[in-house]
Write a structure and sequence with these properties.
heterodimer; A: about 575 residues; alpha/beta; Flavocytochrome C3, Chain A, domain 1; Methane Monooxygenase Hydroxylase, Chain G, domain 1; 3 domains; 21 strands; B: about 250 residues; alpha+beta; Ubiquitin-like (UB roll); two-stranded antiparallel ribbon; 9 helices; about 15% strand
């Protein structure tokens, strides 16, 4: 049986940052279902927020102002002490990444360049052209290589072993060799990313199934604020590839079929740089009211960069230009980019605190799979990269404190062996009987989520979603994988993940139905106002004895910023 | 009205766990709408026709580097290649050359990563870190830009004719990564640390046929790095310098 003092699941920014902080003192094993460099952090484009005050227009920026913008952006659902910790740590994080080699773009005075982003009072988003996630992930991966972190690439974690409120490790599936392997650990950190693929229209990578959140939930870990789903305003039609917020940060316009910069009607001051929830709703409204354009791939709005000129586009947004040319045959220098809002980010996730702890001893969460909460009901652009690295780093402080105090000394082998047998039985059933094809179940689930749990929500649609999900869960019981071979069986891996996607979707839809107010990204047409008196609280879902989610609520932490009306 | 054309996908199948079976092609007929990518079709084949087909994929937007393969004889990322772009009704898919096949279109990238690690791919500093950022000019940042863009997809490694005859050759990606650090104004590694590449397994092994440049989906030019590193090695041999006191 494999053993590590600390087991990290996920090789994106949060997981790698934790590994870098822990590997010199502990035996760390990092498990990732893809090679770490393929993790979805790589796809982040626009930047990472930190109040460095490098921009000539932001000399009086401070971390407190960054915290206020984040809290206001969250529609006051973020826990304010957590936001303060993140924003205070932000400059250190950016400088640390720079010292480790991150090639940020520069200002003429040789400092790190910063650009404006949505919902921010100052231009404080540090960037590397439009490949900021790529450079940060490469830098952290380089750091793990220099430190010799033990990485298990293409190992997928299928279960979390919890007994009596204590985590003992995980059961992993070694995809290349087709082996089911229990791994004992004194502490386990999940940094498994978001659940974008639960939706049909998503900017997320195919690997973003949210299975880590689902694995934790099924093992009894509470999850938080699942109904808060971010829809990015600008995804390419057809493929839904992300067109960074930096397109608008650098001055791009959103234009409807009447040639209007319609944001003027919704948010006259912030215009295109209002927070994402507001811009997405505005775009969707334009489309719903017939002011969008028609295309065989769907209705769309134009993202117009032409007035920026070729030099600026090539200098600041070269990746966007290349993606537009490669994927839709449009050069944004000459033509506007056809975009639509698409699922982009999971504000909710594993219920963690500022120390990345969960309710379960020895089990931690960081990054997009976790919900501290620093993003509340709506995340600001440039805060997700920050969240991953800050909380990856904080996990690397709190896990040793636990191990040196009351931490588990010897995780129990017998619990893991029993779990391993259960998994083997499950796989046997998936590969031997049944008639439902996994892809058709996933397709129906994701279509339901996009149709009924989208940007605008109503009671009727959400109830329909829950009925549909219940039906799809029944069908999953009859799912069949083509081949009984375990090695390199991607269909089997997808089918194992699908079980957890169903649970994640269920908690999103249920949370959305119960929350009878509109806050941040959660907009109920039947309850269009925010209702602080009844709903200024986090939704907690935990799996009940009947296998269904049991919902409870948790207070929001308020420090210095009393909830106000959110105006831009 | 958009018309779907029928294509035949001819895909190389092999399973290293069953070495007695020789590699062979499977054929799949599939209707494809214009604009669909090779990766989108691969997913449909695995979902709807043959669940045993193995290939890697993730971002589907040409940034993660998972899905490099040989498409009608040309190395590219499956996610950014349009099926209709070949003007041919048969599309042949094969795994990246110069690697052992694990299964179907999935290859064992271990040698690729081993060589990547050999060049010490991290910023090497001697001075203590300043409190804030290490200053760097816009021009200095631009100098490393093309090498920073490398997504480590291994297309160049698969295309390299030197690797085809000499598996000990380090590969274009390793030199591109090393040059990314050598050209970085913040990096302080010594010339002595370049001994690893100062031989036929290193930069002197390159035939400069530029196949790596043709294969790169991100417009990186590994040959530029090889030429740059060769120049530095020669200059050092003649004149010394660049932190030669290690």
């Amino acid at each position: 049986m494999h053993y590590h003092d600390i087991l990290i699941v996920g090789g994106g920014l949060a997981g790698l940052r934790a590994a870098v902080g822990l590997c010199e003192r502990y035996d760390v094993g990092l498990f990732s279902k893809v090679h770490p460099i393929r993790s979805h952090s790589i796809a982040a484009q626009g930047g990472i927020n930190a109040a460095l005050a490098n921009n000539p227009n932001s000399r009086d920026d401070t971390w407190e102002k960054h915290a206020f913008d984040t809290i206001k952006g969250s529609d006051y659902l973020a826990d304010q002490h957590a936001v303060e910790i993140m924003c205070k740590e932000a400059p250190n994080i950016v400088y640390e990444m720079e010292h480790w080699g991150c090639p940020f773009s520069r200002f003429p005075d040789r400092s790190i360049a910063q650009r404006p982003f949505g919902g921010a009072g100052y231009p404080r988003t540090c960037y590397s052209t439009d490949i900021t996630g790529h450079v940060l992930l490469n830098t952290l991966y380089e750091r793990t290589v220099s430190k010799g972190v033990k990485v298990y690439p293409e190992w997928f974690v299928v279960d979390l072993v919890i007994e009596n409120g204590q985590c003992h490790g995980v059961i992993a599936f070694d995809l290349i060799n087709g082996k089911i392997i229990p791994i004992r650990a004194r502490a386990t950190l999940f940094a498994t990313g978001g659940y974008g693929r639960v939706y049909f229209y998503s900017t997320n990578a195919l690997i973003n199934t949210g299975s880590g959140i689902g694995v934790a939930y099924k093992a009894g870990v509470p999850i938080k604020d699942m109904e808060f789903v971010q829809f990015h305003p600008t995804a390419l039609i057809g493929t839904n590839i992300l067109m960074t917020e930096a397109c608008r940060g650098e001055g791009g316009y959103l234009i409807n079929n009447k040639g209007e910069r319609f944001m003027e009607r919704y948010v006259p001051i912030a215009m295109e740089l209002a927070p994402r929830d507001i811009v997405s709703r505005s775009i969707q409204t334009e489309i719903d009211e017939g002011r969008g354009f028609d295309h065989p791939l769907g209705k769309y709005i134009n993202l117009d960069l032409r007035h920026l000129g070729e030099n600026k586009i090539q200098e600041k947004l070269p990746g966007i230009r290349k993606i537009s040319i490669d994927f839709i045959g449009i050069d944004p220098v000459h033509d506007p980019i056809p975009i639509m809002p698409s699922q982009h980010y999971s504000m909710g996730g594993i219920d963690t605190n500022i120390r990345c702890e969960t309710e379960i001893k020895g089990f931690y969460g960081a990054g997009e799979c976790a919900c501290v909460s620093v993003h509340g009901a709506n995340r600001l652009g440039g805060n997700s990269l920050l969240d991953t690295i800050v909380f990856g780093k904080l996990a690397s402080f709190s896990i040793p404190e636990y191990l040196e105090s009351d931490g588990l000394t010897t995780p129990d082998e017998s619990f893991l062996l029993r779990k391993k047998e259960e998994i083997e039985k499950k796989i046997k059933r998936l590969t031997s009987e049944g008639s439902e094809r996994p892809f058709s179940i996933q397709m129906d689930l994701s279509r339901t989520m996009s149709a009924c749990v989208g940007i605008f929500r109503t009671k009727d649609e959400l109830e329909k979603a829950l009925v549909d999900i219940a039906g799809i869960k029944e069908r999953y019981k009859r799912v069949k994988v083509s081949s009984p071979k375990l090695h390199m069986n991607y269909e089997l891996m997808n089918t194992l993940e699908l079980e957890f996607m169903l649970e994640v979707a269920h908690t999103i839809a249920l949370g959305a139905l119960l929350r009878e107010e509109s806050r941040g990204a959660h907009f109920r047409r039947d309850f269009p106002a925010r209702n602080d008196a009844e709903w200024l609280k986090h939704t907690i879902a935990r799996i009940g004895a009947d296998g269904k989610p049991a919902i409870s609520f948790k207070e929001v932490v308020i420090t210095n910023y009393q909830p106000m009306e959110r105006k831009y | 009205m958009i018309i779907a054309n029928t294509y035949t996908f001819k895909i190389l199948r092999y399973d290293a766990k069953e070495p007695e079976e020789t590699p062979s092609f499977s054929f799949y007929q599939i209707k494809v709408l214009p604009g669909l990518t090779v990766l989108a079709v691969l997913m449909r084949i695995r979902d709807e026709i043959d669940g045993t087909l193995s290939f890697r994929s993730s971002c589907r937007s040409a940034v993660c580097g998972s899905c490099a393969m040989v498409i009608n004889g040309k190395i590219d990322l499956a996610c950014r290649t349009q099926v209709a772009s070949f003007g041919d009704e048969t599309i042949i898919l094969e795994p990246l050359p110069n690697f052992e096949i694990i299964k179907d279109l999935v290859v064992d990238l271990t040698p690729f990563w081993t060589m990547y690690e050999k060049i010490k791919p991290w910023l090497s500093r001697k001075q203590p870190d300043p409190e804030k950022e290490i200053p760097q000019s816009e021009e200095e940042r631009d100098r490393i830009d093309q090498f920073v863009n490398c997504i480590l997809c291994a297309s160049c490694y698969g295309a390299c004719p030197v690797l085809a005859r000499n598996p000990d050759y380090m590969g274009p990606h390793a030199f591109a990564k090393l040059e990314r650090f050598m050209l970085d104004s913040r990096d302080e590694r010594s010339m002595r640390s370049l001994e690893e590449i100062n031989n036929e397994r290193g930069v002197w092994g390159c035939d400069t046929l530029l196949r790596c440049i043709d294969a790169c989906p991100k417009d990186v030019r590994p040959t530029d790095s090889i030429v740059g590193l060769r120049k530095k090695l020669l200059k050092y041999k003649l004149f010394g310098k660049r932190n030669d006191e290690d």
